Amino acid sequence: MLAFIIRRLLILPIILFGVTLIIFMMIWMLGPERLIGTYVKSPEALKSEKSVERLIQKYGLDRPAPEMYFKWLGNVLKGDFGYSNVGRQGVLQSILELIPYTFELALYALIPVVFVGIWLGVIAGAHQDKLLDHGIRIFAIVGWSLPDYVFGLLVLLIFYSYLKWFPPGFLSDASMKVLRDGPWKHYTHFVTIDAILNWRFDILWDAILHLVSPLLTLSYLWWAYILRITRSSMLEVMRKDYVRTARAKGLSEKVVINKHVKRNALIPVATVSGGMIMQLFAGTVIVETIFARPGLGRFTATSAVTLDYFSVIGAALFFSLILIVTNLLVDISYALIDPRIRLS
Amino acid sequence: MAMNTESRRVLRKLVKNPTAMLGIFLLIFFILVAIFAPVLAPPEPGKDPFKMLPAKTAEGKMIWSSNPIAPDRAHPFGVIGKYDVWYGVIWGTRSAFRIGLIVSIISSLIGIVVGSISAYFGGWIDEILMRITDMFMAIPFLVAAMIMTTILGKGLDKVTIALIIFGWMQVARLIRGNILQAKEEQYVLAAKALGIRDYSIIVKHLLPNTIFPVIVQISMRMGSLVITAASLSFLGVGAEIGYADWGTLLNYARNYMLQLDKSWFAVVYPGIAMVLFVLAWNLVGDALRDIFDPKMRA
Amino acid sequence: MQKKLLVLFACLLALTLFAFAAAKNPDTIVSAEYGSAESLDPHAEWDNASGEVINNLYDNLIKYKGQTIEFEPMLSTAVPTVENGLLRDDGKTYIFPIRKGVKFHSGNILSPRDVEYTFERGFLADNSSGAVTIIIEAVSGGAFYSIADWFEDYAGMPLSEAFDDDRVPTSPEARAKMIAFYNEVIDPLFEVDGDNLIVHMRNPFAPFLSIIPKYAAWGSILDSQWCIEHGEWDGKADGWWKWHDRTPEESALHMKDAGCGPYKLAVWDQTNGMVVMERFDDYWQGPAKTKTIIFKAVVEYSTRKALLEAGDADVILVDPIYRYDFDNNPDIQVISGHPRAQVTSIHMGWRVKETSEYIGSGKLDGKGIPPNFFTDINARAGILHSFNYDALIDDLVNGLGKRVPTDLPEGFLGYDPTLPVYAFDLSKAEKAWKAAWNGEVWKNGFKLVAMYNAGNEVRQTACEMLKVYVESINPKFQVEVLGVQWPTYLKATREMLCPLYIVGWVADYPDSHNFFSTYYHSKGYYGARHGEDYAAFAVKYLDPIIDAAVIESNVSKRAELYAQLQKILLDNYIAAPLYMPQGLFVARKWLKGFFPHLIRSSGDSTPEFYYAWKE
């Protein structure tokens, strides 16, 4: 086990290196004239021919890709990830500031996704081919088949425009003032946890009100996915010998499901959670845009479109790191769930 | 009809399964719509049917205003963003199939090649190919797709390329996993002992037995690809403006979403098309899995 | 007991209803816009969002009178004119008497030294993405656009070679040259004389005063002591290059303010895209009416709309396409139709690079166009008569536009509403096309690409419109509509690859020179993109007039020159303005005090917050 973990950790930097290389090369393929688009937002800003040359020279846009890549790498090792046009400050700083927002959203989304998804999947599997099963599956598939923003905008419409319950944004202006001017101590930078630690339940309530709509949107899509995986692995396992044996022995259906089926059904769920967490982060792009929340999703999307290459690579690096670490954790938990699985 | 027992067994299983039948029926419906698109929604002669032109009023005047127009005799599904929703939904069916089939097939081919070579030969070939796969997987897909479309330009064809380049990894891993298991089987060892060439073994023996999960996955992906393309349109890097596809239509509706009374048709019709399309592929995929899963046969 | 509870409940209900009818948060105005500021350093960036914030934090030497573009004193107690003797030496010397007793947010008192420091610091920094270039252009009399150019002209060596990446001079000569450059070139431009600040222009430049009034962020006056204390340029000749063209975040003014305007910066939360400003109680014109102003960046239109309708935002940015969305809402006021200092127009490249991918086969064979297609006046006329201008304005921007005869907005010097506009007339177009290239065009047809900057729906529709109408004249005519991303568009227009494209220009300053020189001068930003054949035409007929007008300080003589210019433009089908956009202000009814202004950043859609309040 230990050897496995160490091996994976050693490979980690190689993969990160590869990822950043691929992205950097892709972007640099555009050529200097197109890359200055990052720094020049409107034609008015370029008064003379010389200013274009100046910009190209200042940012080294005409130097060969490998040279610029290694220059970037060198700076990174010194801790300088470059300036982010999107974040209006250093890339590292931007990302670090945005991490708590995105994490809070994605991790809270995991809870309903996993629990509701698994719960419904178990029910569907246990009642296979009956009306309940079909009903649940269709309900899930509808969520899976609409682009998230349609659902998000509908949520905004219903819960904010009509009902006025859940406003967009991160916090109300009054709460933001408290976070800024105090009295407030930033313990974890997760506003919900910090609110409890600061004994400010009004801010906790405010944060929750602002979280409901985005969480609803983010998680609906994923219930479907988890649900289907749980259901089908339930079905698989239920046919297995040891389940039949348990049934033959006279154990009640409920016990059979809880003790034997569920545990083994969770394995494929664990497998996909790695990719799912990545997708959850991807889903935050749209949720953050519609509900006007800060986050890495929107940051990444905007940098990609505006070719803010320092930001894109920084963000991609971060996401890759998350993915690899998550996969590693998943693989480890894999082994913990089923000791028969060899980690090879 | 002389059918062997295998096919008959498959058919019987399918027919008994109501959700599978629903899926197949929907698919056939969509295929028919796609085939008969030029009849259902005649395009301008001599022009690319996928590039929607501004709709015309009943009298034939061009509509330049972006305000949504409710369904009327000239436009059964209404007009959004200057474009006829009926036309967009019909031809969008073709776009959906196009993007789904092209991406699925090509990326699966790539994945199969990489995965089978990796699994069959093992050793450092496996290591390198899998690390490369890891690298591609580690890049957040949305980021990669957005950069590619920024580089290559907007357009569904560019999106297709991006989806292919960043979509083969799952298939590779799947095939690899299956072949890793299968290559220790008796018939493979026997074939090797007989001196049959590696290429033959892979193509003629291993793949046919391991490819079914890939087919299931292709089926599932057909639906999700359409959604991914629509999400990319939302972010501004998908199909060109005015391209006949469901995601584009929904994207137009997005700024009118809060006034559903004015724009419901622009959300409902393309939305239903999308939902049913994805539903169809999901149900068919589920059914295929039920059929192909060897464990189910027991 | 129950009755009492009922009464209490009714009172509470009434109270809440009443509360909802009244303005939410009467002491705070929230403006939800699309983008957020790039930098709060007045010399660093050019964009609208930055300008809007900076406008409230800083004051300038002069300001506009109300909604006009006439000048009034501000931090200067008089506007330099020939009549009051403060504008001398044929337009080469401007004298600004500096007001006394003005407090900066830091507590320091304004002095002429601050003004001198501000201009010199701006010049020496000359941020490559910033707007100081227009002040440099003005003060140098049109000779230079950047400090780098000026230095190279003075010292004979490029500035980039004078110091290295660590900002150490590359040689003692380089160091001496840079020090001398400051002492002999820059320092003399701005002189403190008692209570006055004197600007010594290298050459006269009539629009100079239009460049620096309030609403132009780059004309903001900085608190020099604060700047020096916070690590900005120390005011000395030796070492000024350390502050030249730095990245935005290296500036002390990026996230902090050093101004004397009606509002102080409370916080700029980049992560949330939020700027909060608090009233400065010691403001020299008296404290503002509203205590807090909050700018929020909300990218999604539906979300902005929802915020406004719920009262959580008081004013929002609305695209003209959605103008009628608020007609039935009794809580929302919509004011529209005020002119904006912008023109969107179609331009044609007279000579395109031969290798361009946008001209098809490059020949008049029906599959492309020759690179010099638009040198023929009939080809140009054919295009310009094929455009349904009224449909664009009425249908596309919901009437929020006005036709102008040349690329000059309403209200500017030389604007003449009696000049003819090109008619949408397909028969005239057909005649022109038949005459073009001796009938070759009509016989063989052509294929060309109309390009626009992707993401702009109006421009896209304009191109589509052109396509539909041109193609309806002759089936052999093909127009391909191409939307490209900004970087590609930039490259294509710079390298003269596009035969036909739609451009827009927002006034940097309210002077006609800004439009005419940009669009039509052979060296203008857009004018230079039309190829050498156009350049020859322009050098002969247009440049002399434009150049003469910019140094002419007599207003009526300038107007005459511009009238001449416009006649030549119109007769020769140089370009067609599609429309001048008109403004749209959408806000809650309880927000008072809005007045539009041509030049103010977002001045068509947000109020000047000093004068705004809620009731």
In short:
Chain A is an all-alpha fold and 344 residues long.
Structure description:
The complex is a heterotrimer of chains A (344), B (298) and C (615). Chain A has two domains: 2-89, no CATH class; 90-343, Orthogonal Bundle (MetI-like fold). Helices cover 75% and strands 1% of the residues of chain A. Chain A has helices at residues 2-28, 32-35, 49-58, 65-77, 91-126, 131-145, 148-162, 173-181, 191-197, 201-238, 241-248, 253-290, 296-305, 309-337; strands at residues 83-84, 89-90. In chain A, strands 1-2 form a two-stranded antiparallel ribbon. The longest helix of chain A has 38 residues, at 201-238. The radius of gyration of chain A is 24 Å and the shape is globular. In chain A, 47% of the residues are buried. Chain B is 71% helix and 1% strand. Chain B has 298 residues and is an all-alpha fold. Chain B contains 14 helices and two strands, in the order αααββααααααααααα. Chain B is elongated and about 75 Å long. In chain C, strands 1, 8, 9, 10, 11, 12, 13, 14, 15, 16, 17 and 18 form a twelve-stranded mixed sheet that branches. In chain C, strands 4-5-7-6 form a four-stranded antiparallel sheet, covered by helices on one side. The longest helix of chain C is centred in the N-terminal third of the chain and has 20 residues, at 2-21. Classes of the chains: A mainly alpha (344), B mainly alpha (298), C alpha+beta (615). Chains in contact: A-B, A-C, B-C. Chains A and B meet through helix 1, helix 6, helix 7, helix 10 and helix 12 of A and helix 5, helix 6, helix 11 and helix 13 of B.
Q: The CATH topology of the largest domain in chain C is what?
A: Dipeptide-binding Protein, domain 3
* Cα-atom radius of gyration of chain B: 23 Å
CATH class of the largest domain in chain C: Alpha Beta
How does the helix and strand content of chain B classify structurally?
Answer: mainly alpha
Average pLDDT score of chain B: 81
The greatest interface here is: A-C, 57 and 63 residues
Named at the architecture level, the CATH assignment of the largest domain in chain C is Roll
Oligomeric state of the chains in view:
heterotrimer
Instruction: Please compute the radius of gyration of chain C using only Cα atoms.
Output: 27 Å
Number of strands of chain C: 20
The run of helices and strands of chain B is: HHHEEHHHHHHHHHHH
- Identify the strand order in the major beta sheet of chain B: 1-2
Strand content of chain C: 15-25%
Describe the main β-sheet of chain B briefly.
Answer: 2 strands, antiparallel
The DSSP helix count of chain C reads 18
* pLDDT < 50 runs, ≥5 residues of chain B: none
Number of domains of chain C: 3
Give me the secondary-structure category of chain C: alpha+beta
Distance between the termini of chain C: 38 Å
CATH superfamily of the largest domain in chain C: Dipeptide-binding Protein, Domain 3
